[in-house]
Amino acid sequence: MSDSPLSLSSSSPPSNSRSPVPPTFSTRIFSDVAGDIIVVVDGESFLLHKFPLVARSGKMRKMVRDLKDSSSMIELRDFPGGPPSFELAMKFCYGINFEITASNVVALRCAAGYLEMTEDYKEMNLIFRAENYLDQIVFRSFHESVLVLCSCQTQEIAETYEIPDRCMEAITMNACRNQLVSCLSEELKGRDCLELWTEELSALGIDYYAQVVSEMARLGVRSESIVASLVHYAKTSLKGIINPNCQEQRKIIETMVTLLPNNEKGSYSLSTIPLSFLFGMLKVGTIIDIEISCRLELERRIGHQLEIVSLDDLLIPSVQNEDSMYDVDTVHRILTCFLERIEEEDEECGYESDSTGQHSSLLKVGRIMDAYLAEIAPDPYLSLLKFTAIIETLPEHSRIIDDGIYRAIDMYLKAHPLLTEEECKKLCKFIDCKKLSQEASNHVAQNDRLPVHMVVRVLYTEQLRLKKALSGDSEEGSWVLSSGVQSRAVSPRDTYASLRRENRELKLEISRMRMRVSELEKQHNLMKHEMMEKSGSNSGTFLTSLSKGIGRIAIFGGENREKVNRKSRSVSERKTNKSCVAGGIMGREECEVGPLKNKEGLVFSL
């Protein structure tokens, strides 16, 4: 717009001479008629004419009518949009063309309402033009609706004309339309439309944004789209330094938590909410001290996905408590939420249902918690009560092997050398010697930080293993171990739950026994090989010579004995016949001695 500004200096008195007063659009249109009224808008003066104003504005008509004869000044206070909006409204009264856009339509609509520029005074007045632009242009476009809603944030009077509500309704309807188009189109697949409107909503204030997202959820917009919008909005609005005393940041986090979507059954949409987003809001919320209900909600949602978290996510710095480096209490509450989820799933499942998924999740969490305990154990300010609280919360059947928990306890004992003997015993009772590997057992036997009774228990357990391995009787030990774990896992509250836990423990015991059998087989083969090598080194020469002699005897005795005997019997029969005729004693001797020799003269027997 190339028109000169309408405003005059408040100190400049009205004058009919053209030299001191700069030309305005009124003086250009009515060059032969000087201004006859001064309108002061928020301290800025406008030299105008009464006729164009009273022709379209009901408020100006009333104020001009109430003017005293000696006065020619009207003051408008708290004008919507200030002097710029009043200037656009006056241009409309004087018939000067200008463009209505999404950035000025709210100010024009509010200014027209303030000046009462209705159809009662003139057809197609400013209110009609502004409303027509909103209906035909703004509310049909997602982008234009967002821009208009952003401009409503600076115009409180816009609520009077229901512009924000209509904008939010238009935004929601356009989002649903885009979702429908993306579902029907194979080329879009929801990605382009999704990224477009999620980024545009980040320009809104938290109040309007919360209303828009709530309306979207009510009308059935996908949870994935809402979560993507929440993540982008949080990154945009919380970018920069986190101020613990900033009420705006605290309000944003608390509102984000209330906007997180749920599925139809009321449980959490685990697959749609990134864990990094939940942990980020929890860490920021801890710093700025959000409400307890919001923190518990975030912890509950994280706990329902605890099996897929990483160790770095759990290392939440401690801000308010000075007794430890990490916020162990928060992690303990998250673990409790996970166990509650497992218990609820067990109760909902039928008797014949497979609980392999729950077992797998429990074992994963057991490994994660063992790694977490090993990470926080070197903290010299970590109390024994908090350390043992996490160990006690996890059930014993969440670990197949106790090497991880032994490592964490050993690191804690190393970082806290001033623990009493009773405290050390209290820690070591969480270690099941039967569930330690061979390497861990060897380490325990040489660990000076452990109590003596712990070392004795491990040595006794290893002795029993060796004895059973040598005797081949492993069935009894398996039943003893199995029954022990079962007795600890049985819940006294519910018989059905006890049966399910017993079945679960039996499966875990089978897995442990398979691993133990494989280890025993390796040890047995190794001992057998060492015994063979040791015995072979002492009597190798004697056994070699003895085997050769036995071999020669076997060769002669086996192959030629029958032939030699047959020849000897034939010779003895002939000689016996001759000697019998002579009847001498020498004949009998030759008969006896003859079979003892063959042709070569070798002796076979005595």
UniProtKB/TrEMBL annotation:
Compositionally biased tracts (Low complexity): 1-19
BTB domain span: 35-102
Alphabetical keyword list: Coiled coil, Ubl conjugation pathway
**Family annotation (InterPro entries):** BTB/POZ_dom, NPH3/RPT2-like, NPH3_dom, SKP1/BTB/POZ_sf
Q: Which Pfam families match?
A: BTB, NPH3
Region span, Disordered: 1-22
**One GO BP:** protein ubiquitination
- Stretches assigned to coiled coil: 496-530
What family does the entry list?
A: Belongs to the NPH3 family.
The protein's name: Phototropic-responsive NPH3 family protein
Give the species: Arabidopsis lyrata subsp. lyrata (Lyre-leaved rock-cress)
